[in-house]
Amino acid sequence: TAVSPAAPSWEAAYERELRSFRDGGDAGEIWFGEESIVRLIRWMEKHKIPHDRPVLDIGTGNGVLLVELAKCGYTNLTGIDYSASAIQLSEQVKEKEGMSNIKFQVEDFLAPSAELSGFEICIDKGTFDAVSLNPEDAVGKRKQYVRSLCSVLKPGGFFLITSCNWTKEELLSEFREGFEILEELPTPKFCFGGRIGNSVTALVFQRK
């Protein structure tokens, strides 16, 4: 969602979703399904995160997560995406829902602009996965992602990541510099060949 070399394919996908939203009002696919949004909002409410705390959605896509947070009373919301079509789509979804307190902007998270800072909550649903699939220097890009995260998230702030590519142990290793694990959020389990596993990992880190 926020990666440059993959941009043309993301761009095409979001252009399609933009057209279908204009035609029929459908905001398109919700990354990881609606239960992933519910899971994140539930965590924020359970931990009584004040509604005015600055929240950043990294790779916002169609912006639906932030619209749902706005409906729950959160007022300081920013969504970024590398894809200009995604940001256009999220702006239209926001307008349709009448949510004026969400800011959307085109940003490459691997090279964030200077004003992208001071967030207390950062949320990632699939963007780190997309960075990891980058055929050009995936390891370097993952390290840059962690550096970017450290620059936009305040010390003591929370990072909520949902991934379908990485296990809990792998994510702990990727984010070991600058972050500590707070908790693992329950995700749906599946059974394959007699072994039970999770197809999705959802973790909460705190910035040191």
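(the above was protein one; protein two follows)
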Amino acid sequence: YAPWCPACQQIELTWESFAKESEHLDITVGKVDVTQEPGLSGRFFVTTLPTIYHANDGIFRRYRGSRTLEDLQGYILERKWEAVEPVAGWKSPSSIMMHGMAGLFHFSGWIRQIHSYLTGTLGIHVWISYAIFILATLLIGLFLGL
């Protein structure tokens, strides 16, 4: 979820109720703020918000059903998750591919922080910051090419 997401705000009370019932369902329910954990959004290949996953014994399934409390509970109690095809091996959050994707998301956050430091703290104009990144990209490419 993300705090600014209207769909996430709409499901929040239902999700909190589901989390309170989780002990009776013998499951653990959690939520992750993708603005605070960009690596996880890359690892789980989150493209829409909110995104709900069911994980059991290291096998991940994406929940695409109704987001009512009754349907969420039914998904677990009636074991509807068994009929859902698991996430493909290469797209699984535990795969090497998604580990690399998480790294790219972390890297993009690092670049954003550097850009904010250059423009906000040092007061450098935005276009000069872009030019610094372009020059750095070219120099790194030349160095690796040699």
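Reviewer note on protein two: Residues 96-145 form one domain.
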